[in-house]
């Protein structure tokens, strides 16, 4: 399968590209800088891809699928990623995405997957299980834009152009050349600076990439024009630092744990029914151990 992946230099894009390559698929990486080598296990073809309305469109010809993981935002921020330009934020991430999807459909791409977010659900009642059957009620502009994009893609869906949205939770995982999600937290803790607990749902980047591949290869009637939740663990900064303690022996006080019963988990029954099995606590512990090793090797 030949797959064009937008946002290939981002955290999710990198995991998706690598996961596809390792499993023998051909990848075309959509990037903003085609002169920079993508740090993955083998060379990949790169094409210029931008969400700007006047940018040239990438060549989709010959591609079987399009994974749209690109998202234009203020660096380091998703919620609040609009900065001082909410209209430009919406124009790029909704209109710009629609422009790419329309081009992909015209070029004969058969499947299109959009990386959406749990933010489409908005602030549901405390502790509620978030299911794909819920009516989205996004509160942040980030969530609004993701939901608008989901609907725009679904409207393009046909028997010959299968569309699907993957609503991802927080994504963690170690990648060469990129900071780990909890690297700043870990450095503060190891330096003895005060840290506070924060609860959230998480999924490892490679598990998210495995979900992407499942959706690209599943029977079309099972996934077409649907949304799927992707989440694995309900965890916290307290849990992260507790694992860090086990890995490096640091004994600074851990932050007081919050009551996680008030935080809504995501129902992943729909995705698991396709055979998706994330790494759970075993993968989480291994990842924090790898992070500890990285930090220990710093000069």
Automatic annotation (TrEMBL):
Gene3D superfamilies: NAD(P)-binding Rossmann-like Domain. Pfam families: Epimerase. Residues 3-229 form the NAD-dependent epimerase/dehydratase domain. InterPro entries: Epimerase_deHydtase, Lipid_A_modif_metabolic_enz, NAD(P)-bd_dom_sf. It comes from the Bacteria. Coiled coil: none annotated. This is NAD(P)-dependent oxidoreductase. It comes from Rhizobium quercicola.
